[in-house]
Amino acid sequence: MIDNNTIVRILQSIIDPGSGRDIISQRLVTNLKIDRNNVSFSLQMPKASMDDRSKVFMACEQKIKAEYPEAELDVHMETQQAAGTANSPLPQIKNIIAVASGKGGVGKSTVSLNLTQSLANMGFKVGIMDADLYGPSIPTMLGIADERPKVREIYGKHKLLPIEKNGIYAISIGNIIDAEQAVVLRGPRLGGIIKQFVYDCIWPDLDFLIIDLPPGTGDIQLTLVQSLAITGAVMVTTPQEVAIKDAVKAANMFLLPNVNVPILGVVENMSWFTPKEDPSKKYFIFGQGGGAKLANYCKTALLGQVPLVAEARESGDIGKIAINEVERFNSAFNSVRDTFLKQLAIRKEMLAPTKRVEMKN
Ligand SMILES: Nc1ncnc2c1ncn2[C@@H]1O[C@H](COP(=O)(O)OP(=O)(O)OP(=O)(O)O)[C@@H](O)[C@H]1O
Ligand SMILES: [Mg+2]
């Protein structure tokens, strides 16, 4: 008797060359039917190369025959996207969130990492992709600057394993090449690296993947919205007027009709400074009201205001995550996170999943 569970277990041992994960958890097997000696199922690999499809097909055949020599196999290769299946290359990741800004230095990396940690502290499985290839800051802030991602060979191809720290899975160019080498990378190479972060990394099952984008609206941002179905974007700004002008430009990229990534909200960073000696005082060093103004322009919510806290910068510089060290910072980020989760719930209620931007060749 051919046993259903045994077949599933066998299929779980077969790796999809695209994602580096097994074909069951990658949800590539559908319509599995077992009737006496007949085993039939479909393999959903419409985007894979012929070579990869035949590797998976042959592995299925060999492994099932090894366990059940009497099995009659009927494997149907799907060439069309099945209705209802996500067209994301990372179906094991429930929410992909891009953190963006117009200007540099407003605190995207700080917001990305502390929001990620805040979600992890709640028990979510989280990852962070450092898409800032010129100025990767995640390795230093997360305290993994000296680590290298492990490499696993799958059907002769090399795949990267994100580095795990504090329950966060991270990938950054800063862990792969030296910072001085990164500055010589140019257009097409940048896009290639971002694609590798998506297609050549073995990402685990995650509730959230947060993407720390470089400032502005360049090639990297475009490659990302083209290769991933991004659930939503979070904009970061400081309260001052010039930061907002640039942020509006960055926001407009997400709102383009053929990109159409909803903006979940705005985080206003460096909203005020409070001296340690007198916690009742607030100094509005960079002005006031910018976050609310940007949120209003994008027809979205202000997720929260994050104060300027010297110890927060200090912890980042030594690879400690600020919310785990500084209570004032933690409470600011708890409220950012809670509003973010509310906005996400509303987004899921109101809008269809984001589609990848289909390129016409
Ligand atoms: N709320 C804050 N309080 C204190 N320091 C902060 C705060 N936010 C950011 N910083 C510090 O300001 C600097 C810039 O922040 P960060 O690197 O997060 O900005 P960014 O927008 O990612 O910059 P880039 O455009 O270079 O990627 C860092 O040294 C960071 O530690
Ligand atoms: Mg940054």
What keywords describe this structure?
single chain, 361 residues, alpha/beta, GMP Synthetase, Chain A, domain 3, Rossmann fold, 2 domains, 8-stranded mixed sheet, 3-stranded mixed sheet, 12 helices, 13 strands, 23% strand, elongated, binds adenosine-5'-triphosphate, binds magnesium ion
Task: Kindly describe this structure.
Helices cover 36% and strands 23% of the residues. The strands form 3 sheets. The protein has an 8-stranded mixed beta sheet, with helices on both faces. A 3-stranded mixed beta sheet has the order 1-2-3, with helices on one face. Strands 6-7 form a two-stranded antiparallel sheet. The chain folds into 2 domains: 4-78, 2-Layer Sandwich (GMP Synthetase, Chain A, domain 3); 93-350, P-loop containing nucleotide triphosphate hydrolases (Rossmann fold, 3-Layer(aba) Sandwich), CATH 3.40.50. The mean pLDDT is 88. The chain starts with a helix and ends in an 11-residue tail after the last helix. α3 packs across α12. It is elongated, with a radius of gyration of 23 Å. It is an alpha/beta fold and 361 residues long. The protein binds adenosine-5'-triphosphate and magnesium ion. The site of adenosine-5'-triphosphate has 20 residues, from α3, β12, β13 and α10.
